[in-house]
Amino acid sequence: MKRLAVVGTGYVGLVSGTMFACVGNHVTCIDKDPRIVEALRAGRCTIHEPGLEEILRSAVADGALHFATDTAEAVAAADAVFIAVGTPSLESGAYDFQYVEAAAREIGRALTPRRRRFIVLKSTVTPDIYTSVNAILTQETAASGVDFEVLSNPEFLAEGTAVRDFGQPHRIIVGAVSGEAQDFMETLYAPFTKRKPGLLQFTDPRSAIVTKLAANSFLACRVALINEVARYCEAVGADIERVRTGLASDPRIGHLFLYAGPGYGGSCFGKDIRALRESARGHGADLCLIAAIEESNGRHKLHLPQRVERHFGSVAGKTIAVWGLAFKARTDDMRESPSVDAIEYLLERGARVQAHDPRALDRAAERFGDRIVYCRNKYEAVSGAHALVIMTEWDAYKSPDYYELRERLEDGVIFDGRNILDADEVRQAGLVYIAMGRQAEIALQTAPV
What we know:
Elements: E1 3-7, H1 11-22, E2 26-30, H2 34-41, H3 52-61, E3 65-68, H4 71-76, E4 80-83, H5 98-110, E5 117-121, H6 127-140, E6 148-152, H7 162-167, E7 172-175, H8 179-193, E8 200-203, H9 205-236, H10 240-248, H11 269-282, H12 288-300, H13 303-312, E9 319-323, H14 338-348, E10 352-356, H15 361-368, E11 373-374, H16 378-382, E12 387-390, H17 402-408, E13 413-416, H18 423-428, E14 432-435, H19 440-444
Parallel strand pairs: 1-2, 1-4, 2-3, 4-5, 5-6, 7-8, 9-10, 9-12, 10-11, 12-13, 13-14
Helix pairs in contact: 1-3, 5-6, 9-11, 9-12, 11-12, 13-14
């Protein structure tokens, strides 16, 4: 059993703290907002992550998981302190490290010289902040003589599957200098790795940090590439689904992150790519491909609403139904969601938007206010609309009642931004189907009603 303090209760901090606690460690998660701490103490999750609340409640009931606003008390009793605070983007695209640095200062002041402590960077950072955190801790502990080591342990959690990703990891990367730190982390992660030798990989802290940035950049590159190929398929009359199948059959490529869609979003890919780009520039390394990924995705986010506009000639005065607001299924996160870009594009050109999402309506209201109509039922969103645009791959959208859609849609047009519908079923219902990277529109427009 280890005593841990986790600074930050966002997606990374709360999932990590809860999962460490559920295997028997004593964990205190720290947040400055007393309302968040109060809710978590009562067993109410402050983020939407499938499966997390049940585990959290169990860990709290067992006395393994605690929540506090006082950093000093939690740190003083901890064997290791995880920094899991946010690293938002500056206007330049670089990370804003003010929260990481503030956490490091508080931790440094709270450390006592009873034994060596491990300060673990769980927040997504660049190697520069590793040096900065070391310097801050050295300064804050100069008088007390505390023995500490800063480690890097980047997270590889996907929203919507974070609990599974933590409990059944593909790999765990730890950047540590000393053998003592490696032994500590090996013991800490043993409940999640003992059945799969080789999951825990040790390296130096800076390489661990870059591994995280490189992983997200690589995945984003795959998404951007398949979306560019999808646009090419539309131009030349090819079918992206058949192309994708051919690509995925190559074992060097595989099928993951190889689905055409409206572009990537969320809190990771775009932010991490921009931060990597700016960090590289600061060190005199010009990463051309990295910058191109973000540019490609930014352009692609407008491709679907532009197709809607081209189909109608103008969207002014048209009512467009949007299914899906979160950037992906199984989350309510709308940060950098392609739906935001698409809706803004349509609104700017005079369209009226009626939207549905199983989880993100409240988030959407914070973003759009009264500029769009929010519908609690997916078919309500379609009523009176001239077209339906599918932006998120929620299961609830994968097999709709096509005849219900035909009755409710004014012009009977579906723009499938995720290619999740069955084209034959759409055709049989007499609807016009426009998918990503496919030329189905031509065949379906002549389908019998």
